[in-house]
Design goal:
Helix content: 40-55%
Number of strands: 6
Shape: globular
Oligomer: single chain
Number of helices: 5
Largest sheet: 4 strands, antiparallel
Length: 189
């Protein structure tokens, strides 16, 4: 393994561990601080911190109607994803790509953070809520709400990592591969 690959691998593990710790500490702090149903407004008419119930589903609550069974299914998917990503990072071409290793580190951090919640609480603890009521062009028009799903830092790491992975997939060119010397043509007589 080259020095660059070792540095990228170290970066991957630091980022995954740091993202996981930030997610778990923030969830613990918020859920210890607020009672169920309480919320705090950090930025008026924009950013709120509610003590939300558990989310058994995935992104935007998809699959949540199946309750703890959905959470168990998503936990199994998270384990598979984490294992596949760790195996993938062992490839030399991946380990040398700092951007790709950053994306994968963020995805592992998010998947691990939500996995722990699913295993310990049978759902994901969400607490960041972006809600804004704004008036369109005419001041006399009725306010329209922008209500984003309640989420957590693990979700943030997953989304940022996925966006980085997509950008990498569509805009980073693979280096040209060499397959060895070209075969020699037979001698002419």
């Amino acid at each position: 393994m080259t020095a660059t690959a070792r540095q990228s691998m170290t970066w991957f593990w630091i980022l995954a561990a740091l993202g996981f710790v930030i997610d778990q500490v923030s969830k613990f702090a918020i859920f210890a601080w607020l009672q169920l149903g309480e919320h705090v407004t950090l930025i008026d008419n924009f950013l709120h911190i509610p003590h939300n119930r558990l989310n058994h589903g995935a992104l935007f609550g998809m699959g949540g109607e199946f309750g703890p069974a959905a959470s168990l299914g998503f936990a199994a998917f998270s384990v598979v994803a984490i294992v596949v990503i760790i195996i993938w990072t062992r490839r030399s071409s991946v380990a040398q790509d700092r951007w790709l290793m950053t994306a994968l580190g963020l995805i592992v951090a998010g998947a691990a953070g939500n996995l722990v919640d699913r295993l310990l609480y049978q759902g994901v603890r969400d607490f960041i809520w972006i809600f804004h009521e704004f008036t369109w062009i005419a001041p006399e028009s009725r306010p329209r709400p922008f209500n984003y799903a309640v989420f957590n830092f693990a979700d943030t790491w997953l989304v940022i990592g996925a966006i980085m992975l997509l950008l990498h997939t569509f805009w980073v060119k693979e280096p040209a591969r060499t397959t060895g010397p070209a075969p020699m043509a037979p001698a002419q007589e």
